[in-house]
Amino acid sequence: MKIFSFRKYPILYALIIAATLFSCKKILDPQIIELPTADNAITSSADVEKAIASAYSYLRAVVPDKVFLMGDVRANLFTSYSDVQNVRVETPIPQNTAAALLNNDGGNWNQFYTVIAQCNLVLDRISKINIYDEKTRRRHIGEASFIRALTYFYLVRFWGDVPMNLQAINIDNIPRTPQAEVFKQINADLDIAINNLDLKYADGDAAVRATKGAAWAIKAHVSGWNHDYATCEKYCDSVITAGPYSLVPTSNLISIFIGKSSEGIFELNFDVNTREVQKNRVFNRTLGRPWYTDYSDGGGGSDRYLLTPHRDQINNMFTPGVKDDRIATWFIYETYLQGKNEDRVFLGKYRTLQLKGDTSSQNINESNIIITRLADILLLRAEALASNGINRNAEAADLLNRVRRRANAPEYTGGGNIQDTILLERKKELLGEGQYFFDLVRNRKIDKDTRIKQADWYEKGAWLLPISQTIIAKSNFVITQNDFWK
After folding, report:
1. What angle do CA 433, 107, 426 make, to 5 degrees?
2. Residues 6 or more apart from 338 whose CB is under 8 A from it?
3. Which CATH number does the domain housing residue 69 bear?
4. Number of folded domains that form the chain
5. Is 62 part of any domain?
């Protein structure tokens, strides 16, 4: 990975900062100001606010596709009509071949490093601004640190050892850093975020900007990923007991995905009023007619091209005939394809469209992409409590049943393996939110529920993504390929 010195290339720097200040309207509508130069690009707290808005925007540009395809589709939760008929480019992803992953941008980490470079720049410039409201300064430091930590967390879960750069300016090729070192930095950034962020800001920023609760939640996930379940449980408990979050009513589950609900902890905002509506494969590959009617998806307007769970996959999650109110919200049984072999069920979580949206265009979806929400953290804490090192199964069952009661589903009363029961509940609750592949890796059960069946899949690194040969070559081969894909 080549990182250029902006001091050597001031014109390039000016263009990048210009894009930073003028292209994103995520947090606020930026005022027109003088075109920045390398010397005056970020010189005030108002400039930092706009630069952080760009960091959120860059995150929004990369996460939905990557996490849906590599977190849900790769987990074999979403498939197209057939592996051999009406095949679309995403269809082979669950087979875990290099071609399938690389063809779907699974080898390209560049957009994640765009987010990181922006955060590095913001943190570097904050320290050079003299006139700064202290509360605003702390918030900006916390947000940039949170976004950088979250981005590196995605990187290590996808690719393992990854290049780590914390400098706004660096001209050297950077080799891959061992995961353990990257995790130290992730935790350090999250600690900074926790120490600087408030639990709550203005209602308009609810869930779509980083808070102390969001940092606690990601810290819990980082700890769980590293099997430090004691720490994971502690941070989950902080979110649940000290955070301003509550489960939304059963009658209004769709409000979770409209966004900024009482349940939302951190999510990516999509709002036409701030020019955030964009195409991505979470929205456009899971909804067919009457939501989208155009031919631009390559599927000729046919619902057969959608990525959906098969009936058998749905029945494996939700036992037929057993009450569970999530079924009516998570899925849409309105389809133009009926019959034993062609019946397709849409994922309905992301069906919120722009008011008076033009369904001939795919840039119309206003559902938010959920990164973490209260139900996720309730079940993650249940997983931690039920882990072999803690064994507080009764408390784990109580948390599991909080989620089930909200869905009007039968409560867990014992029997079977509670760890497997919690994992299945996460699959049911968080379907389509990019969690399940990570859940399987964390629990070392990916060979039980995906097409990756190698007995030593974890040790050999079959769970990691390959790295694009273009990235390897451009690094002058300082970056090396993951062992499984050599």
Report:
1. 20
2. none
3. 1.25.40.890
4. 1
5. yes
The beta strand positions in 211-334, using DSSP E, are 264-268, 331-332
Residue whose C-alpha is closest to residue 197's, from 218, 176, 183: 218
DSSP secondary structure letter of residue 286: T
Decide if 472 is inside a domain. yes
Q: How many CB atoms lie within 10 A of CB 336?
A: 12
Domain that residue 58 falls in? 10-197+454-485
pLDDT digit string (tens) for 277-319?
A: 777 778 878 876 666 665 545 444 566 677 888 888 899 999 9
CA 384, 65, 255, 150 dihedral sign is positive
Phi-psi map region of 359: left, alpha, beta (phi>0 left; psi -120 to 50 alpha): alpha
Task: Answer for the pair 34, 14: CB distance below 8 angstroms, yes or no.
Answer: no
Q: Rounded to a whole number, what is the largest CA-CA distance in the chain?
A: 68
Of 138, 125, 145, 129, the closest CA to residue 55 belongs to: 145
Phi and psi at residue 408, to the nearest 5°: 55, 35
Half-sphere exposure of 120 (CA within 13 A, CB side): 18
Hey, what amino acid is at 398?
D
Counting Cα atoms < 13 Å in the Cβ hemisphere of 285 gives: 23
4: helix, coil or strand?
A: coil
| 325-370: pLDDT as tens digits | 999 999 987 665 555 555 678 888 988 876 545 555 556 678 899 9
Structure tokens at 97: 């071949």
Neighbouring CB atoms inside 10 A of 161's CB total 19
DSSP string, 441-452: HHTT-HHHHSS-
User: Measured between alpha carbons, how far is 101 from 214 in angstroms, rounded to an integer?
Assistant: 30
Indicate the helix (H) or strand (E) that contains 371. Answer: strand 369-373
Structure tokens at 254: 């769709």
Q: How far apart are CA 379 and CA 385, in angstroms?
A: 10
The verdict on pTM exceeding 0.85 is yes
Instruction: Tell whether 170 is covered by a domain.
Output: yes
Tell me the CA distances in angstroms from 379 to 156, 251, 331, 366, 391, one per residue in order.
23, 21, 21, 27, 15
Kindly report the number of other CB atoms within 10 A of residue 478's CB atom.
15
Q: Which are the contacts of 228, defined by CB distance < 8 A and separation ≥ 6?
A: none
> Is residue 399, in this structure, part of any structural domain at all?
no
**How far is 112 from 134, CA to CA, in rounded Å?**
29
Report which DSSP code applies to 72: I
